[in-house]
């Protein structure tokens, strides 16, 4: 027994055991790397997380539908609230408690730049519609016209105040942190307000152009999760270990099909398709754009004979919706991959924890930001007429001319028409 204990405790034996342990641990690491354990299909707690995520999704969709029902102004307010939460989550990424204690005003400075950017962006987008809303009241109209006229100057003044505030609060040994916060704040403003400006512009072109792209991203996200949950086996990208090819392909097919049929349903409601020219909240009625008027479509000859329909009514906008669906399923997910890489760089799981099972607001808006920009560019490039119209000229007159100038223009037009 003593000999056995001596042999087992000898240096060579201990070294051999240590090597064997290293080999076994390295082998386990290789197995872990090759094993699709991060995938949802192999997650031990997947059903619990599935239920939490499902409940949160139902609440979000319910709230989203209610806001859309309330109209353009309320949707814009929702976008505004989302922006504030996104900015808060992103501001907190580079915050350091010890430095913030030494710089008590740095948080207020960040929000000063944020609200200055908000005034600039929303002022440019909504000023024309605000003027259209208050035309009946001369005092309010003069006030709004003055604010619109000096809007750029007011925003520039506010920015200069923030810039001087930043310079005057620079502290020794804090320069690097302060300049890092300054640059980080401006990057957040670019990311947040670039997509928001396109989103709000889409809303007032017609809720359809906001609702359809947003819905396609939601559908793609839901079905990517469902297909990955039940069928996921092949990892898609290292940045997102739980994303699978099965989920990606299944969600893509579902999203494109959904785009075609959703466009048909949404395109039949004037409340969703009519553009809003003011900031009122009443129901909209307008002559349907040709895009939203049904046209007969004959099915191709290769359709099987047992198929009951040979001809169907299709809205022209449905063909455009296929492009939106293709982008939402193929390109927009890369916004999520970008966010995943961003989170890995900061070694965090989620941007926040405000939505159970989903993370933060920013985690849900990564793909929406990419989609909103594409929807706006596609709408302005291929759908919206760029020709001058009476409504556009009137909007320019109401926005840029004073009441006296408008009266003079009206008199001149009357004289010209009378002479003709």
Automatic annotation (TrEMBL):
Chain intervals with Polar residues compositional bias: 1-13
Membrane-spanning residues: 58-87, 108-127, 147-170, 182-201, 207-232, 244-263, 319-339
Metabolic or biological pathway, per its Swiss-Prot or TrEMBL entry: Phospholipid metabolism; CDP-diacylglycerol biosynthesis; CDP-diacylglycerol from sn-glycerol 3-phosphate: step 3/3; Lipid metabolism
A Pfam match: CTP_transf_1
Top-level EC class: transferase
Known cofactor(s): Mg(2+)
Keyword set includes Lipid metabolism: yes
EC number: 2.7.7.41
Main localization of the protein described in the UniProt heading: membrane
Catalytic activity of the protein: a 1,2-diacyl-sn-glycero-3-phosphate + CTP + H(+) = a CDP-1,2-diacyl-sn-glycerol + diphosphate
Keyword Lipid biosynthesis appears in the UniProt entry: yes
Record's bilayer topology term: Multi-pass membrane protein
Domain of life: Eukaryota
UniProt KW keywords: Lipid biosynthesis, Lipid metabolism, Membrane, Nucleotidyltransferase, Phospholipid biosynthesis, Phospholipid metabolism, Transferase, Transmembrane, Transmembrane helix
Location in or out of the cell: Membrane
Alphabetized InterPro entries for the sequence: PC_trans (IPR000374), PC_Trfase_euk (IPR016720)
Cofactor note: Requires a divalent cation for activity.
Region: Disordered, residue numbers: 1-37
Function: May be involved in the synthesis of minor phospholipids and in modulation of IP3-mediated signal transduction.
Homology family: Belongs to the CDS family.
Protein name per Swiss-Prot or TrEMBL: Phosphatidate cytidylyltransferase
Source organism: Brassica rapa subsp. trilocularis
Lineage, top ranks: Eukaryota, Viridiplantae, Streptophyta, Embryophyta, Tracheophyta
